[in-house]
Specification:
Length: 281
């Protein structure tokens, strides 16, 4: 499958690139960003996938997180996809709400009309995009990590937990810890997957921890001044599930930090160190 390069700029000795392609999975054109450290010129490098949150595109992380410096330091590539299918004919929320539809794919495969045609973000992230990345860039798929923010934190955790052996590391910033138990999650999972809550379980990190066959250590940062903390994010549920099932977790409540990229960029170095430690062993 061909890629169209949209941009390429030098950053910390490496290259920050952006590509477009026709997605068979999402039945539309999709855009993703790639940071390639200079080591990728001569050798296969480890890589991490970043999954962004509600309303974001591939560009938010690339321009605001400051991750390129740490990716260059460790010689790690970063892949940052969009958060949903887009384009003419791709359905949106009936009221154009920010928390469903465009910019809010929730990293699931929709089974409910009219979203079931395009909204297959789970398969896109776990199958189509990795196949493209592995075929087109000098990366080592045996050394892959995944992390994300908010809706993307939910995506990173559930995808890692659902695919044992694929990812060597996982972390999240302010993840939606239990989508089955918060308004964002109930709206998204209900709208994409239907009313049978049994089908939601594989997309709830707290439930998936109870089913996990490997104990991949979780690094979670959460600002205690996050306006979504109590109603939507509920990190205490994730912490309780990990404790109950003896799953390794480091949950850091960061005093005074909110939900923004100011928060993310502050602790990005710690997360890149976390992934580098696992991916370079």
């Amino acid at each position: 499958m061909s890629l169209t390069e949209l941009s390429s700029v030098k950053s910390f000795g490496g290259l920050q690139k952006r590509f477009e392609h026709q997605s068979e999975t999402c039945k539309c054109k999709m855009i993703f960003a790639v940071y390639l450290p200079k080591e990728a010129e001569t050798e296969k490098v480890p890589l991490v996938y970043w999954l962004s949150g509600l309303t974001c595109t591939d560009e938010n992380f690339v321009t605001k997180a400051g991750a390129q410096a740490y990716a260059a330091k460790h010689g790690i590539a970063i892949i940052a996809p969009d958060t949903s299918p887009r384009g003419e004919g791709v359905p949106d929320d009936a009221e154009a709400a920010y928390d469903f539809g465009l910019g809010a794919g929730f990293y699931v495969n929709a089974t409910e009309a009219p979203f079931s045609t395009n909204y297959h973000m789970y398969d896109y992230i776990t199958k189509e995009l990795p196949a493209l990345v592995n075929a087109n860039f000098n990366v080592d798929p045996a050394r892959t990590g995944i992390f994300g923010h908010s809706m993307g934190g939910h995506g990173a955790l559930t995808i890692a937990l659902n695919n044992p052996g694929v990812y060597k590391s996982v972390s999240a910033f302010a993840p939606i810890s239990s989508p089955m138990n918060c308004p964002w999650g109930e709206k998204a999972l209900g709208g994409y997957l239907g009313s049978d809550r049994e089908t939601w379980k594989k997309h709830d990190a707290c439930y998936m921890i109870s089913q996990a066959t490997e104990r991949l250590p979780l690094l979670i940062d959460q600002g205690d001044a996050d306006p979504f903390l109590v109603e939507q994010l509920k990190p205490e549920l994730l912490n309780s599930a990990a404790s109950e099932h003896n799953h390794p977790i480091t949950l850091r409540m960061q005093p005074g930090y909110d939900h923004s990229y100011y928060f993310i960029s502050t602790f990005m170095e710690d997360h890149m160190d976390h992934h580098a430690k696992a991916l370079k062993n």
